[in-house]
Amino acid sequence: MKKIICAAALGAAVLSFASAKNYTGVNAAAIKDVPTATSFTATTTKGLFSTDVDDFISVTDFWGVQPEKFFGYFGYNYNDGHKYNKKDGLGFNFGFARQLKKMYVGAYFGGQLDGMKMTSVFDDASGADEVNYTYEADAKYAYTGSILLGAEKFGVKASLYYNPVGGVGYLQNVKPDSGDESIVQKDTYEFYTDLQLGFNNKYSPFFQIAVDAMTAKYYDNNDGYADKGFADLYLRGGFTQNLKSETEGFSHKVSYNADTRWRITPIVQNQNKDGSDEHLGAANHLIQLSAAYKATVAATDKLTLKAKFALPLQVGLVWDEDYVKPIDGDKTYYTSRNFKTDIGFEPTLTFAATYAVVPGKFQFNCGTKITVGDLGWNIVATQTRDDPTSSSVDSTSTTVAFGFDSSDFATSWDAGFTAFLGKKVTVDASYNILNKLNNNSVDYSSNNDIWEVVKDVFVQKLEFLVTVKL
């Protein structure tokens, strides 16, 4: 009885603690990956299972592809967000690889290239002002390209990602013979360049350096120039260690990653004929250290199970500006400046399974990922200045909030299948019926007849890609 009372009291305390929501999470911008080739097997198993599609352009896994002549695939599952958070309808993707004696070459492209156009604001029919003309870069879709060169001991991969950010790219000129020589130009886009290096040994280490540049510029030769862009510098690395196992059909390993993102903002953000301004001191950085344990069980000849526990530690640094110097004024220090440091843990549990319904012919894939909530600290140090013309800090106060936010608890399901058409062709598909069933999005009300319910359950979007390996 005492144990029951203690458990109830502990549960009440946890619920009370969680509902307080003292901890608000890590406020720094998240780590963003360059999109890459992703199989539906990986998507539907939350990344625990993979195929040659996932491996052929990876600096730590391309050694396992080993095509005798050629490997290639084509699909319509391009994802310009995070690797296993698939979005719909963003474009096709394809890739190929060849083994050239001792060298390996792989290439990948994803996205769409259409949407660029030149528009004139006048024609004979409209009678518009013929001294005006407009160029509009209406690129609506993001795209990614990667190339990998590999040898026996290492691989090097270079990638670029272009995102038009809403299709904004605009230039308007007024011809000189109108008496007005004004020019208006707007540029908004993201350009992400990435370089990775991986090694082929028992730890499979990798290193990565990347720059994610967000351009947001405006120019008007009457009003001046404004720059609200920034660039994120990524320095990342990690390794994996296979652990020993004496149990047949069981294997496990641990992996460790360090991901850092450092934001660089322009000092001059506004400029015109009278001069330029200055902004200094703002920061938005993120340091993420993560450890993960992954286990694989070959339960039967047909059923394989995998599980993963990941524990990322995030440290976010968000600082206010220190001072601003306007175009037509003196340097002014902020009388109140906040330094926000967030430290948070967000553990996740992932489970996945593949079942060979007909071995070598047809396989069912499924997976679920559980985010159990956020635990961490928000630390805010506030500096106060009495004199805005001086950099001297008169006082500093610090507040610390600690808590567990259970509102971030989330679970998601995915399902799909793989069909093997002989030894050379594979069809990999997503048929996400489990998400409907497990997220209670099926209407079982008495207003629906049985056929509407059956349709709601079984009529799901079918996506697939085709792989050829020779």
TrEMBL record:
Keyword Signal appears in the UniProt entry: yes
Signal peptide segment: 1-20
Highest taxon of source: Bacteria
Keyword entries, A-Z: Signal
Protein name according to UniProt: Major surface protein
Organism: Treponema porcinum
